[in-house]
Design brief:
This protein has about 280 residues and is of the alpha+beta class. The protein contains 8 helices and 7 strands, in the order H-E-E-H-H-H-H-H-E-H-E-E-E-E-H. Strands 1, 2, 4, 5 and 6 form a 5-stranded antiparallel sheet that branches. Its EC number is 4.6.1.19. Keywords: Disulfide bond, Lyase, Signal.
C-alpha cells in the first residue's frame, strides 16, 4: 500500500458525529438527509431491511477479550426471514479502520473496540474491515447518497460507533451471572436456562450458537424505526435458522487451565463433561 494512498484515505475520513466523550472535528457540517422527507419508502430515512442483529462472541480457544466480558462480533442487517444481506458495495471496502476513526476524532471508539471488538485470530483491524465490508455496507441509511456533502468513509465511523454503543447496552456476562450462570468446565447448563435469563433482560428471544457443546455466540435482534444512526430500536424475537446449541451447554471459562478446574470438591458427576471431547 503506497503512502499516497494511505494519506488520501486518511484525509477522506471526515464529517462524522463522534460518541460522547470523543472530540468531533467535523461537527460544523450538517448531517440530516431526512429533514424534508416524509416518505417511509426513502431508504435513507427508514432503514431497510428494518431488522438488525447484534452479535457477541465468547472466545475461549484461543481466548480473546476480557475474562469477564463477551465481545462484539458484528452488527448485521437482517431480512424478515432471518437471512443476511452481505457485501453490498465492493467500492466501499475500506482499510485502515483505526486511522479512519482516529482522524474523525473518535479516539474513545477506538479504545472501546480494542478492548471489546477483538480478533481471536488475525488483527483487530482485519476483523473490523471484514465486518464493515460484509455487513456495514448493507445498511441503507449509510449509503453515500444519504449524506449531504458526503466525504469518503464517514459512514463507516457511524457504523462502528453504533455497534459499540449498542453492545454496551447488552451486558451479556452480567445478565448471565445475575442468573447464576457463570463459566465452568465441570457444570453444564440447560439451554432453556440461558435462553430464559437473556430473554428476561433483553425482552425478546435471543439466538444462541455453539461449537459442539460450548456456548460461543449470541445474537440480539432488533427492529429499527428510522435510521441506523438516530432511529428507535425495539427488541425483536429471534428468527431464521441461526440457533444450533444442544440441550445441555458448556459455558467454558476464559484464561484458565483445564486441570485447574477439576478437583474432588468441584466435580459434579451429573453434569460433568470431558472438555477434550467438546
Amino acid at each position: 500500500m503506497t503512502s499516497l494512498y494511505i494519506l488520501s484515505l486518511i484525509a477522506a475520513a471526515t464529517s462524522v458525529v463522534a460518541i460522547a466523550g470523543s472530540p468531533n472535528v467535523y461537527a460544523h457540517k450538517t448531517r440530516d438527509p431526512c429533514h424534508k422527507s416524509t416518505s417511509e419508502d426513502n431508504t435513507c430515512c427508514s432503514l431497510y431491511p428494518t431488522r438488525l442483529l447484534q452479535t457477541q462472541v465468547w472466545d475461549t480457544r484461543p481466548v480473546a477479550g476480557p475474562l469477564d466480558s463477551w465481545t462484539i462480533h458484528g452488527l448485521w442487517p437482517s431480512h424478515g426471514d432471518g437471512s443476511l444481506p452481505f457485501n453490498c458495495d465492493t467500492n466501499r471496502t475500506y482499510t485502515n479502520i483505526t486511522q479512519i476513526l482516529y482522524h474523525a476524532g473518535a479516539e474513545n471508539t477506538i479504545d472501546e473496540m480494542n478492548k471489546f471488538w477483538v480478533a481471536a485470530e488475525g488483527t483487530n483491524d482485519g476483523l473490523w474491515e471484514e465486518q464493515w465490508a460484509g455487513h456495514g455496507t448493507c445498511f441503507s441509511t449509510l449509503n453515500p447518497e444519504c449524506f449531504i456533502n458526503y466525504d469518503v468513509a464517514e459512514e463507516a465511523v457511524l457504523y462502528f460507533q453504533k455497534a459499540v454503543s449498542l453492545f454496551k447496552r447488552l451486558p451479556t456476562y452480567e445478565w448471565l451471572r445475575d442468573a447464576d450462570i457463570v463459566p465452568s468446565y465441570s457444570i453444564t447448563y440447560n439451554l432453556t436456562e440461558i435462553q430464559g435469563a437473556l430473554e428476561k433482560q433483553h425482552g425478546s428471544r435471543v439466538s444462541l450458537r455453539c461449537a459442539g457443546k460450548r456456548l460461543q455466540e449470541i445474537g440480539y435482534h432488533f427492529n429499527v424505526t428510522g435510521t441506523l444512526q438516530t432511529g428507535d430500536f425495539t427488541t425483536a424475537g429471534a428468527i431464521g435458522e441461526w440457533d444450533d446449541c444442544p440441550d445441555q451447554v458448556l459455558y467454558e471459562p476464559k484464561g484458565e487451565t483445564k486441570k485447574a478446574t477439576f478437583s474432588f470438591e468441584t466435580f459434579h458427576p451429573h453434569t460433568a463433561t470431558d472438555v477434550e471431547d467438546l
